[in-house]
Amino acid sequence: MRRGAPLPVLPGFNFDTRIGQTKFHKPQHFGRIHTGVYYLSEKAKCGIGGKPLPFVGHDRYPALYPRGEVQALPPWLAFDNQRLMFKAYFQETVQERWQSPFQIRVVTISFFLEDGTIKISEPQVDNSGLEQGVLVRRQRIPMPDPVRYRYYDILDLNIGKEPEFFARVYKIVDCDKFTRRFLNRCGIPVPDPIEIPRDPYNERRKVEVFSKKPNRKMDTLAKFLSNDRKVLRFYGYWDDTGSTYGVMHDLELHFYLSDDTIEIKENIPPNSGRDTGLVFIKRMKLPKDFSKVDAPGAADPFTILNVLGENTSSSWYIVDSLNTGISDREFYQDKDLMIGAEINVFGRKVVLTDMDPYTREYYRVKFGIDDFTPLERPDIKKESECKPVEKYVPPYNGYGSYEDSLGNCFSIEPRPPKIDFVKFYEHDKQGFESHVLRFRAKLISNIPENNDRHFIIRVFLTDNTISIFELAVRNSGFKRCLFQKRMEVMMPQQDIYTNKKPKYYEPHQFYIGARVNLNGFNFQITSADIYALRYMEIHCNQFPKANMKLIMEKLRKALKPVYKKFLQENYPVSPECESPVVEYKNLRGALCKYLGDQITEHEMITLARYYSSHEKKERHTREYIRSLVHGELTRQLWTDVERLEEDLHHVDRARTGYLPRDELYTIIRGCRLALDIELLNSMLDHLCKNEEGKIDYNDLLQFIDVKQNPVMPTPPINVKSALWWASEKEPDCGAGVDWCRFLADLDIKEEDCEPMLPAN
């Protein structure tokens, strides 16, 4: 409901109240009780010209009820944010203060009308030494004995009254304007303010006392402002070769024009065996004649005399105008410094030999000097010259790695060994390039049980570290686990307890057929995975066993004497074939027969891979891989095929149905397909591809769909160790070797061959 309008709401009784109005500001809805306290009020009804109507005034309460029917509000709403403020004081006894047995402390008493609570606070006074602020937090305070059943109310607080709050008596002396008006409207008379008694301690502090040391200073501000940051620099030396183990000191002198002070720094050559402190003389006024250390106060410009008074509290001091007992000491000025000048630095003879260009210009302008020829510095003895000394590195003690122990020899706080970040960035994992060479090896031992143990050796190209994992057979007594953690392995048969860095195994020392001793265990490498073979063939300049040029030179040199016999024994059976193919095992047997230990197993596999007839046999079929994929997806409860199809269509905007392998791999990994990385790569190898090598992702969706065309489940296998090893049983060298290409690259002419001897 709204308050009744001054005129009935009928035609002819309404008119525009804004006619003739000149002020259009937003009216204020808040009325102020006193400083800092406001309340929400109803805006006044205005008539013509913006003047309030005579019969309509301000109403503190909103117009929720008709006039005369407003309900009485509770105190916590009627007196919200309203309080009575009184000014009071209390007297506090001070036992340990001289000539002031008590002190007066002024406080402010706030009485909150909404709930009858009281708060007492003391305003901050500078240098009072008291913890001021809130003395009594906001609460209802009970009356003292014998009236303990009642709390202090509005009738108990007024000017002149002495309420007792928690055994402390306060004297109320004044109140603010709102409090006085509120109490008068309630029918309570408020007396006039009472004067606060004086505090004897504060009165004593107001008495002006003459300072014991008058503040009289020399006027050096003008000189400082005109010469600030203007410094004269000289170069010189101090010849100390006459003393035992003395040397020639190279000095640099700075003269500050702002206060005529001098600072001398010493330029110490590296590896001189002396302290590395730079300051020879700190910044100070340098006396010309030095005989003894001045007494305290001798450098003060004035002498203070006590001429009046008997005690220290009421004494008067004046400055000695006669300067009794002052010593007239001379200090070095800018006029005393010049090239060739000899200055006395506390008994040390310093010779100035040169100055900087700014100093030369300063002396040219001020003193009119034009000759600035520098002096030659005396030669230093050759035996005193600094010679480079090689750092002695103690031998390795066997604790930690060699790099960690070496860090203790160069600094007190050992620092971690530096990492070759360039090599790390070049050989870090990038897409399908893992830069990790994996080999399969067997343990060579005198214990018969160890001869059947097989291991996987991983060589990390980022930092040449090696890790060994054991492929234990079930019920063999050995555990399938990590045999050696990733670390650098030192080569055997070398003295490590020396100051020379030991040699470590490098990637080119690992190849098929090699025997390596890793931390006391002898391993023979039997095979490698496809990635290791391919990486070594691509970077054949780093791996000599995979360099076809070196392999063919070795074969050419070894087969040249027996070339005809080699052709007769190993030529294919069907010579009429256009491209005859020889089996790898036959070629391997022939090479072992004629070369023996000169050729390694890795070189023969590299040769067979290079001249392969591309008739490779697949180890796992498409249906076998599909059954493994279905088994993993069923075990992981993965059914988000629609999401994968949506992501594939989002990338293939043209709906070609084909995507590159790397993009398809990224999408599958992003959709969190519950497959191991090796199983995922095997699945991508068996999918249909177009002429450009892109994979048909529709074939992928059918391949992983477990609901349509399901396959027979297969026994569970260890995917991590069963799929990734491509050459687990036979090398990846194809079904045969192209004989014609091999002979063409061998390039051995018959006239260069030696004649065959007749068979006996």
Structure in words:
The structure is a single chain. Mean pLDDT is 81; it is low at 42-50, 53-63, 724-731 and 756-760. A hairpin with a 7-residue loop joins β14 and β15 (316-319). The strands form eight sheets. A six-stranded antiparallel β-sheet has the order 13-12-11-10-17-16. The longest helix has 15 residues, at 622-636. The chain is 22% helix and 20% strand. It has 19 helices and 27 strands. The chain folds into six domains: 1-71, no CATH class; 83-205, PH-domain like; 221-366, Roll (PH-domain like); 421-544, PH-domain like (Roll); 547-616 and 738-746; 622-725, EF-hand (Recoverin, domain 1, Orthogonal Bundle), CATH 1.10.238.10. It is of the alpha+beta class and 760 residues long. α13 (622-636) packs antiparallel against α16 (677-685).
